[in-house]
Amino acid sequence: MSVTVSVTSVIQSAVNGQRQFTAEGGTVAELIEHVDHDYPGFAARIMDERGELLRFVNIYLNDEDVRYLKGKETPLSDGDVVSFLPALAGGA
Amino acid sequence: MTRIPRAVVDEMVAHAREGLPNEVCGMVHAKDGAATEVFRVTNTAASPYRYEMHPLEMMRLESRRDETGETLFAIYHSHVASQAKPSPTDVRNAFFPPGEVSQPPMFPGTFYILVSLAEEPPVVRAWRVHSAADVDAAIAALEEEPIEVV
Question: What architecture is the B2-141 domain classified under in CATH?
Answer without folding.
Answer: 3-Layer(aba) Sandwich (3.40)
